[in-house]
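Appendix B. Raw example, untouched.
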Amino acid sequence: MKSRGMFGLSVVVFAIGASAAEISGVVTGPKGPEAGVWVIAETTDLPTKFAKVVVTDESGRYLIPELPQANYSVWVRGYGLVDSRKIESPAGKTLDLKAVAAPSAKAAAEYYPGMYWYSLLKIPDKSEFPGTGDKGNGISENMKTQEHWVDTVKNACQSCHALGSHGMRTVPKVFQESGNSFQAWARRTQAGQAMTNMATGLGYMGAEGALKRFAD
């Protein structure tokens, strides 16, 4: 049975019983079997990079099926964890793996998918719409509803940038030199060939308020 995983990949829920084309085992952590965590097998031995992800059952068991013959790096990932040490193994082996608890919530969050971080963006309250312009709350008077603000993020920002991904949520050091997070984000959006488009979108959203939300 297939389901969707935390990284947008197809994951497989299984019945134990490894063969020569499978890797299986049990994942345990500091408190025992780890249920619902991701086990990843990845190889570069094939003509193209190949990876497969499965999720453990309630007893911490996993089975990665239908693996081409190759040497794989196998490790554990999940909410509240940091990536475990990668174990090298060919297909057809039984590997019991150790999940590694994150030392802090901040460390754990670095492994969460971009959508998790994207969902943290705070949206202006419905009471702030319609916008009252430069002499009011900074949001354009043409922006009539909260949905309009969200649509601008999706179609003006998200259409070009993978918001929430590590590369987007981490401001490059060259912009961090501008000062605090707000100033760094302001400098970042003023750089590059799309700066005019970004300035236009931010103007509609209320530039100062929008940049504070991204910086937060």
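End of appendix B.
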